[in-house]
Automatic annotation (TrEMBL):
Belongs to the phosphoglycerate mutase family. It is found in: Plastid, Chloroplast stroma. Keywords: Chloroplast, Hydrolase, Plastid, Transit peptide. This is 2-carboxy-D-arabinitol-1-phosphatase. SUPFAM superfamilies: Phosphoglycerate mutase-like (SSF53254). GO terms for cellular component: chloroplast stroma. Its main location: plastid. Substrate binds at residues 129-136, 180, 215. SMART domains: PGAM (SM00855). Residues 89-110 are annotated as: Disordered. The active site is at 130 (tele-phosphohistidine intermediate), 204 (proton donor/acceptor). InterPro entries: His_Pase_superF_clade-1 (IPR013078), His_PPase_superfam (IPR029033), PG/BPGM_mutase_AS (IPR001345), PGM_Phosphatase (IPR050275). Its EC number is 3.1.3.63.
Length: 563
C-alpha cells in the first residue's frame, strides 16, 4: 500500500525547535566541537508528562507495598518520605499540562510526510535496538520511561552485536538518551572515535497512561483500548494522543538530522518501536505497518541511501538487512512476533552464489548452477535449519534452487540418524513454476517506481507472476502441519522473494528495488493470525549462519566500493 494523504503533514505533527547543548559522548568524547545543534520536536513536554505519570504510578505502587506489607525494609519514616515525594510529583504533573495534539481522521491511519532530504554522497545507516532490559524481562510496558536498565542477558546481546559490527567503519553515533539504549550504544561504540549525538526524538514511543503497567494489568484496566493497541495500533488513541502517528512524525524528523549530517556511515541505537518507524519512514511506509517489521533486542537493520539523479530529489533507499539478531531467527524461542504467538511461518532461502552473482550480475541463464561458494552457503543454511523440523520444501524449478533445496532436504531427512537411534524422516519437495527467477534488470539511474509509473510491461508481468507464486505458497502453508506447528521452506531467487515479500506487505511494484537479499540468506515471515492474516516480517537477509562465507553485515567502506 502506498502512502496516501490525509493532510497530516510533518509540519503539523511535529513542529520543531532548536535544542542546543545536548551533544555528548563517552569517555573522553564528551563533546564534539563541530557538532551541529540537534533539532527536536516540540513533543518533548509529552515525554516529560509520560515520565512523571510513570514515576507517580511506581511511587504509588511502592507506597502500597509499604502500607500493607509491613516489611522491615520500608520503615514508617521512609513511607512518609515516599508519600511526600509522590505528592510533590503529583503537583508537578498538574503544573505541566500537555497541549492537545492535532486531531487526525479516525477513518485512516495514513499520514503524508515531506520527502527525505537530498544527499550528495552515498550513505549507510545501521540501526540497532537496545539489549534486553529489566522491564522487558518483567513484562512491563516501558514506552518512553527511563527506569529500566540492561539485564545480564541484555549486556551479552549488546556485546554480540558489537562483534557483528566490529569491522564496520562508523563516522558518527546517534542514540536515544534513555539508559537502556545509551548503555547498549556505549558497548557497541566501544573505542571508536567520532561525534556522538544523544537525540531526544530517538526515545521510545510515548505510551502515556500505559507506561509502567504490567501487560496483564493493561488488559484488565483498559480492556478494549488495550485490544486496539494490539490489533490496530495506528488508530490507537490514549489520553488524547495517537502514539504511533506521533512516533512516525518523530522518526521522520530524525531522518532530517541523520541524512544532513556529514557522516557517510552512521550507527543509530534506539528502541523497538522507533526503529520500526525509522525503517518505515525511510522506505515510504505509513503507520499501518507498525509491528509488521520486527525489531528484536540488539537486532541489526541496515539502510543504504544513494543520491538521486536529480540533485534536489530524495535519495534512493534500500533496506539491505532487517533485524539480524544475536541468535538465530528460526530458533524455537523466536516463535512470537510483536508479542503474539505465530500460528505458522514461512522461511525464505535464497540459493547460494553463482559465478554471475559474484560479479554483481544477474544469472546468465535460468539454469546457471551454483558455484562451490554457493554449495558451501547452501550447506551452512541446511545446518542452520536443523533448529526446526521441516516437512515441506517449496522450490523454484531452476537448477540452482533445486540443488540448494536438495542440500537442505538431505540433511533434514538424515540428521536424526546422527543420534543413538535412527528415526528416518521424509520431506516433501514441491516445484512451483511461478517461483522462477523474475530476472528483472532495473537500468542504472532508474527505479522500480519510475518503471511502474511508465507502465513497463515486463515489470507488471513479473509482479503478476510473483503474486501467483505467493498465493500458491500460502496454499501450501495452509495445508501443512497442525496449527501452531506450520512451517514451510521456500527456496528461490532474490527477485521472486522480494516481490513475494512486497505482496505479503500489501505493497506495489514500486517497492521492488527497496529490499535486498544476498545469496544463502534466510528471511522469515510469521503469521500470528494464520496464512489468511497479515504477515509479520521477522527478519530479512539474515546471513550470520554463513560465517566466513557471508557478506558482512555492513559492506566495505564506501572508499573501496562503487555505487
Amino acid at each position: 500500500m502506498a502512502v496516501s494523504s490525509v493532510g497530516c503533514t510533518l509540519e503539523r505533527l511535529s513542529p520543531s525547535s532548536s535544542y542546543h547543548g545536548c551533544l555528548s559522548g563517552f569517555g573522553n568524547n564528551l563533546a564534539h566541537a563541530n557538532a551541529v545543534p540537534i533539532k527536536l520536536s516540540s513533543w518533548g513536554s509529552r515525554h516529560e508528562q509520560c515520565k512523571r505519570r510513570t514515576e507517580l504510578r511506581l511511587l504509588k505502587e511502592l507506597l502500597k507495598q509499604c502500607t500493607y506489607s509491613r516489611s522491615p525494609f520500608f520503615p514508617t519514616a521512609r513511607r512518609g518520605h515516599i508519600m511526600a515525594v509522590a505528592t510533590e510529583t503529583s503537583k508537578t504533573v498538574e503544573q505541566q499540562p500537555v497541549p492537545s495534539p492535532p486531531k487526525l481522521s479516525a477513518q485512516t491511519p495514513d499520514c503524508q510526510f515531506s520527502p527525505l532530504p537530498p544527499i550528495k554522497e552515498a550513505k549507510r545507516v545501521v540501526l540497532v535496538r537496545h539489549g534486553e532490559s529489566t522491564w522487558n524481562q518483567a513484562g512491563r510496558i516501558q514506552g518512553s520511561s527511563d527506569f529500566a536498565v540492561l539485564t545480564e542477558k541484555g549486556i551479552i546481546q549488546a556485546e554480540t552485536s558489537r562483534q557483528m559490527l566490529a569491522d564496520a567503519n562508523f563516522d558518527a553515533l546517534f542514540h536515544s538518551p534513555l539508559a537502556r539504549s545509551k548503555r547498549t550504544a556505549e558497548i557497541i561504540w566501544d573505542k571508536r572515535t567520532g561525534p556522538v549525538y544523544p537525540v531526544d526524538d530517538l526515545r521510545e514511543i510515548d505510551l502515556y497512561a500505559f507506561q509502567g503497567l504490567y501487560k496483564e494489568e493493561g488488559k484488565e484496566r483498559f480492556g478494549e483500548q488495550y485490544k486496539m493497541w494490539q490489533k490496530d495500533a495506528a488508530n490507537f488513541e490514549i489520553d488524547g494522543h495517537y502514539p504511533v502517528r506521533e512516533l512516525w512524525a518523530r522518526a521522520r524528523s530524525c531522518w532530517d538530522l541523520i541524512l544532513k549530517d556529514k557522516s557517510r556511515s552512521a550507527l543509530v541505537v534506539a528502541h523497538n518501536a522507533v526503529n520500526q518507524a525509522l525503517v518505515a519512514t525511510a522506505t515510504g511506509l505509513d503507520p499501518i505497518y507498525f509491528r509488521l517489521l520486527l525489531q528484536s533486542n540488539c537486532g541489526v537493520s541496515v539502510l543504504d541511501f544513494t543520491p538521486n539523479a536529480d540533485p534536489d530529489g530524495p535519495p534512493k533507499v534500500s533496506l539491505e538487512r532487517l533485524n539480524q539478531t544475536p541468535g538465530p531467527p528460526i530458533a524455537a524461542s523466536a516463535g512470537t512476533s510483536a508479542g503474539r504467538k505465530a500460528k505458522c511461518r514461512l522461511v525464505l532461502v535464497r540459493h547460494g552464489a553463482t559465478d554471475s552473482t559474484l560479479q554483481g550480475k544477474k544469472p546468465a541463464t535460468q539454469e546457471e548452477p551454483m558455484n562451490m561458494l554457493g554449495v558451501v552457503q547452501s550447506r551452512k543454511t541446511a545446518e542452520l535449519l536443523l533448529d526446526v523440523t521441516i516437512d515441506t520444501i517449496v522450490t523454484s524449478p531452476t537448477g540452482r534452487a533445486v540443488a540448494a533445496a536438495e542440500e537442505i532436504r538431505v540433511l533434514q531427512e538424515n540428521a536424526y540418524c546422527l543420534k543413538d537411534y535412527c528415526e528416518p524422516r521424509f520431506v516433501d519437495t514441491i516445484e512451483v513454476p511461478e517461483l522462477q527467477d523474475l530476472n528483472l534488470q532495473i537500468p542504472e539511474g532508474e527505479s522500480a517506481e519510475s518503471l511502474s509509473q511508465d507502465g513497463n510491461g515486463k515489470l507488471n508481468e513479473a509482479w503478476e507472476q510473483a503474486g501467483r507464486a505467493w498465493k500458491k505458497v500460502l496454499e501450501v502453508l495452509e495445508n501443512s502441519g497442525e496449527e501452531g506447528d506450520k512451517l514451510v521452506l521456500v527456496v528461490g531467487h532474490e527477485s521472486t522473494h522480494v516481490a513475494m515479500i512486497s505482496h505479503c506487505l500489501g505493497l506495489t511494484p514500486d517497492y521492488l528495488d527497496r529490499f535486498h537479499l544476498q545469496t544463502g540468506s534466510v528471511s522469515v515471515i510469521d503469521f500470528p493470525d494464520g496464512p489468511s492474516g497479515r504477515g509479520v516480517v521477522r527478519c530479512l537477509n539474515y546471513t550470520a549462519h554463513l560465517g566466513r562465507w557471508a557478506i558482512p553485515v555492513t559492506r566495505p567502506d564506501f572508499k573501496d566500493e562503487e555505487y
